[in-house]
Amino acid sequence: MVYNEVERTDRDEMRSMQDERLRTTVEHAYENVQFYRDALDDAGVSPGDIDGIDDISLLPFTGKEDFRDHYPTGLVAVDREDLRRIHASSGTTGKPKVVGYTEGDLQLWGEVMARSLVTAGVEPGHTVQNAYGYGLFTGGLGIHMGCETLGANVIPIGGGQTGRQLELLSDLGSDVLTCTPSYALYLAETAEKEGIDPREWNLSTVVIGAEPCTAPMRAEIEEALDVTALDIYGLSEIVGPGVSMECEAKDGLHVWEDHFYPEVVDPETGDPLPEGEEGELVFTTLTKEAVPVLRYRTGDLATLTREPCDCGRTMVRMSHVTGRSDDLLIVRGVNVYPSEIESVVLEFDEVAPYYRIDLRRDGQLDTIDVTVERSEAFDGDDEELAARLRDRLQTVLSLSPDSLDIAPPGGIERTETGKVKRVFDHR
Ligand code: DLL
Fold first, then answer.
1. Among 11, 50, 328, 372, which is least packed, fewest CB within 10 Å?
2. Domain 328-425 belongs in CATH node 3.40.190.10
3. pLDDT (tens digit, 9 = 90+) per residue, 203-226?
4. Binding pocket residue ranges, ligand 1, CB within 6 Å
5. Would I find Transport among this entry's keywords (predicted)?
6. Start-end ranges of CATH 3.40.50.12780 in the chain?
């Protein structure tokens, strides 16, 4: 079953739809966003040069630094009164990437999310327990809108509250659970500890996403919860969850390419790579109004294929994300750039500009420990300082480190060149 027949569109037809939508998007971005006007002018490209997808590589890339440099709303292409929603995700320097949506954008998001849910086997009338975080993060509200668009019954519990999650899974007979893979495993582990048997639940499917999931990890989720686990991908800059979704064939994620055009490029040179080769995913929005995005470099590594899929959908498939081309860390589903932690450290005169991040896996959950170094001049109370740093990190990262230690001056090891290795990923 598909939600929308467009998912099975003939490839030539899809291409002409994309050609036309790309032309409109480039014009819209050029006319209404100073950043794009300057970028195209600098590249010597005018909207009239873009006939269709064949010309897409003439367009300059957009990077996460462009969201940062135009914080908060410099990339918005519509009047403020036409915005209906703002979301935000972690940026690289403590300033989040802010994205806006018009009414049309919200409808489009609801539609691609409804498609994604149907692709996962969700039907109208199913009960979906949504354990993605609500708020500025796009996960909670994105999935929520998809359920409403589809006509599913959504339980908006959001992230955390593990005891309550287990209770509702049992008492409300949820058919589907939506959450990060690490949280799915944590729920399974907690259920086991409490002597609860997931086989007694009604749950058949978990829609996992927002962070990478290895094949063994997926197998463990499926075994422990007695479910099918399918991968959903997305990012705030493009729309949120629902850019692509894995189908029951479990052979890649269908990209909703009538709205988001994908490319894979060499992460070093930016040159487009042939189909099947792994590189950095780049997306161009084809219908977004509030924040049209041209050739956004996601930093996510994957491959693309247009080979037919057993499910009958013709839309291009991406592989699971295999890694990152930059230093983004995803901790319990929250995006963290080391540079964000650095920006907080630099705000405090009481600490030296050195820090260390240790990532571990405790059972199924990621932990993050931050160590900073007291400055020579500081003779105040370490505990009080640690509390203030923790507070500030919580504000900037939307995540509180599991521990925050203050090392004595010189206490963080330097290498001979004076450089500090900052991130120790023990996972
Ligand atoms: O994580 C949107 C989302 C919410 C997707 C819920 C799926 C489910 P951001 O916070 O902007 O948006 O983070 C986007 O998260 O560039 C990837 O690095 C990573 N990511 C998202 N989905 C997956 C996935 C949401 N299925 C960033 N596999 C992206 C691997 C993922 N990484």
1. 11
2. no
3. 999 999 999 888 888 999 999 999
4. 89, 132, 137-139, 209-212, 231-236, 240-241, 298, 300, 321, 335
5. no
6. 1-323
